[in-house]
């Protein structure tokens, strides 16, 4: 990487990402590393200009306070500490310094240049991918999500037809999503794309399965099976492309940071898939991934795609999945997204979707009694997905959405709006 870097050493702070983002917002690249990094490892990083020791509530590990190697203080980099009372440096702070103080350290003391931007990042990564891959091939599971789509676009810029994309349609995608993936990557970007329609295979495996965790395991396991089957048909594949992003690595834990959750793309590959990884987005936060997608020329609807669970609509078709209810989820979700976009809510609301429970309620249709399903609308806002509040959608907008769902979606006679924040509810239903 050609950009200057400020290294944050994790000494148990819960605000490492806040600090890293504050520095990146100044136009200077910043990375979080474990507290026990050696001088040799630090010097191996490119263009390091300064070090911040970031202590906090998790600094005590196994009854002892963790610290950095003493020789780090004398290795030639400017050093400041936050909430680390025994740090052997002149400047110590109880909390993250105000912006002017932080800027003074980054630019005046460290001499860093504000050269961190998406144009430079993309150019750097294209060069690095070319160096890593050479003339060999990369295999990528292209789900159509933001991360995999941006990885695909970047790898196409770097190695073109050496990239082999596999898109598996498990039948649990949102309306027109697989078609959009094929249209953008195969038709517009001329990607080497293998499309696998495994709808029948997945729905057969999921028949009569109602437990949410069992459904997730079936969907995840079967996806790996399909992907491995396609990979074995190919020759000369040495690399596996992945959409790992920086929060995946951070949330999976460092030696002093508690693991928030495990991620399938951080140490979760099947052991028999002997590929070297290509992870060009692993330094980016989510909003930076979206900015990277725009820089690469991807369409807005793909870059600003709604967060979507790995099991897809399988966990929004509650209980045992039926084709009838699955189609009701898919169609109602499409209506909700269309009307939110018309109302300008698509960029305001963090996540919105519909679910269909596995029970019916009595209603009236064509002057006769009917017994049909309900659609539940959920729209929430959050900063970190740990807590979430309910979006207060205008009544007129909800009325339009309700009328459209009742008139256009088969086997539905009732629409409800979920008013439950997180906690005590969660974002998804299953």
From TrEMBL:
GO terms for molecular function: ATP binding; GMP synthase activity. PROSITE patterns: GMPS_ATP_PPASE (PS51553). InterPro entries: Class_I_gatase-like, GATASE, GMP_synth_C, GMPS_ATP_PPase_dom, NAD/GMP_synthase, Rossmann-like_a/b/a_fold. Keywords: ATP-binding, Glutamine amidotransferase, GMP biosynthesis, Ligase, Nucleotide-binding, Purine biosynthesis. Catalyzes the synthesis of GMP from XMP. Its EC number is 6.3.5.2. It holds the Pfam family GATase. The gene is guaA. Residues 116-305 form the GMPS ATP-PPase domain. Pathway: Purine metabolism; GMP biosynthesis; GMP from XMP (L-Gln route): step 1/1. GO terms for cellular component: cytosol. ATP binds at residues 143-149. It comes from Qiania dongpingensis. This is GMP synthase (glutamine-hydrolyzing). The keyword Lyase does not apply. It comes from the Bacteria.
